[in-house]
Amino acid sequence: MKLLITGLNGTVAPWVGREAEARGWDVVAWDRNAVDPANETAALAFLRAEAPDAIVHLAMGAESWAGQLAGFARLHGVHLVFVSTAMVFDASPDGPHRPGDPRTAKDDYGQYKIRCEDAVLTACPSATVARIGWQIAADAVGNNMLRHLDEQHARDGRIRASSAWRPACSFMSDTAAALCDLVQEGTGGPVHLDSNALDALTFDQLVQQLAKKFERDWVVEVTQDYVHDQRLVNESGGSMLPPLSAHLG
Predict the structure, then answer these.
(1) What is the per-residue pLDDT for 237?
(2) Does residue 95 sit in helix, strand or coil?
(3) Per-residue b or e along 93-103, where b marks 16 or more CB atoms closer than 10 Å to that residue's CB
């Protein structure tokens, strides 16, 4: 299996790359310094030269890039997994959110991801759109919940955590394994990956449990300043990931 991954300098993609290599797959990175996705001719030449068996698209980039990857996947029988976000759903109407629910994002990032999803599924209806939540890892860079909480506490001397928010979130190792499973299974359409889908921890509960697991002496101020059941469930109401309790006890 030759797997092309975009975004390997980001947060989640390196975990996907390591998981794929552990499965014996050949991982190819898209280096945007060498191949500009905006140059459609060069991008297509790169795809043809590499001839991947599957693609996982995690990088930020123009909707046209996502659409081109999807068009290549459809034309060449390559399975594409596009990684989207829980942020395509606004807090109103509230969750938990299912794959077929209307996408209600009002912020720029959520609307951008909606446009990418549409570009992918228009060009390749059999592609997978995997929506994920906030990611957790002990040592990951980028948008990692643990790192964010450490930085917030160092800056403010406390962490404000809403008891009215049930976040979509998972450990990066579980997300990476699930994304590789989706590559193998060839599941099409939107799917949700959320380890909090069934545990339904509120953010203040999650912060306290993370503090215990990772031996942090955070001061936690419980608030109700963000109200949202952000959990991502699948149509059956279940989850494709191990629950948070598998890591947190």
Answers:
(1) 65
(2) coil
(3) eebbbeeebeb
